[in-house]
């Protein structure tokens, strides 16, 4: 699977970008909303976050076809994602997507319309407009009690038909997210370490070409 899935999906939050809100008479589960609002409120109090994650790709038969580790750095709307020779960086004005295997960086302007969901938005209120959600039974994994929320996009034309967001009940952080596609593929993002208020400088969120000798720049701005 070339470049794994990160370049195309830009981490979990961004895969939902561009969904259009549809009118629905189905009410959201207030218990699920309370949990999600709690995660959002806590995240907004943090100055910065560094989180390690594991991304697993599963086929239709639930067999793991690939697994990669990565790290996401967040400070306000700014973010940087690193994973096995790939980097995605945004200072909320410009975004850089770097592929190590071809030593190439693609530069774009950040969409300011609010349609795309960034890693930071993933931990806040991305769920309000584009999803219907309900609370599923709790589970226990690795000693953590998880509150599982099933989310379905209001735009049924999208390839994604369901997302399960698992919240660490004690820590009030997103612990895991599983994305289900109509083609049978599943993507599971598991947060293995979450460090609030980590020392992260603004330089983290700017691509410095000097650190990548010979890099080819594709500027699409």
From TrEMBL:
- The species is Chitinophaga dinghuensis
Query: What is the protein name given in its UniProt record?
Result: Chaperone LolA
Superkingdom of origin organism: Bacteria
Q: Which residues form the signal peptide?
A: 1-22
One Pfam family name is LolA
Task: Return the InterPro entries for the record.
Answer: LolA/LolB/LppX (IPR029046), OM_lipoprot_carrier_LolA-like (IPR004564)
Keywords, alphabetical: Signal
